[in-house]
């Protein structure tokens, strides 16, 4: 059994956690804050399709829930499935948003660091949007 290196990237947002969850969990709004989805997501049944430099990827989100879980599985063009844990939890009167970044097989340390930095950048964008409103 192989366990991948991981890092939890997180940020506090000064908005009620349910507001953050409602916004962040909406696949149609994700391109507003997740740079990797800038071209948008297209719904295909219970999955979503995102076009990117590697081709089309399929994204299946956790069922809507009241627990702040926005986990999703991304299926790459070659069939590799990547489980992404994304959570919104209460933090006082605000929210904590956490994404678990995994170092995938064959990924260099530099690529892992770039992925973690990209996730932090996305979370900062999310924070900026939600704290302006």
Unreliable stretches? none
What Rg do the Cα atoms give? 15 Å
What is the terminal separation in angstroms?
Answer: 46 Å
Helix proportion range: 10-25%
Record field, number of beta strands: 7
Q: What number is the mean pLDDT?
A: 93
Structural class: alpha+beta
Provide a count of the helices.
Answer: 2
Short description:
With 133 residues, the chain is an alpha+beta fold. Helices cover 24% and strands 37% of the residues.
Descriptive notes:
The chain has 133 residues and is α+β, with helices and mostly antiparallel strands. Helices cover 24% and strands 37% of the residues. It has helices at 17-24, 109-132, and strands at residues 6-13, 41-44, 47-52, 55-61, 72-75, 81-91, 94-102. Strands 1-7-6-5-4-3-2 form a 7-stranded antiparallel β-sheet. The longest helix is centred in the last third of the chain and has 24 residues, at 109-132. The chain is globular and about 40 Å long.
Please give the structural blueprint.
Elements: E1 6-13, H1 17-24, E2 41-44, E3 47-52, E4 55-61, E5 72-75, E6 81-91, E7 94-102, H2 109-132
Task: Summarize this structure as a short list of keywords or feature phrases.
133 residues, globular, 7 strands, 2 helices, 7-stranded antiparallel β-sheet, alpha+beta
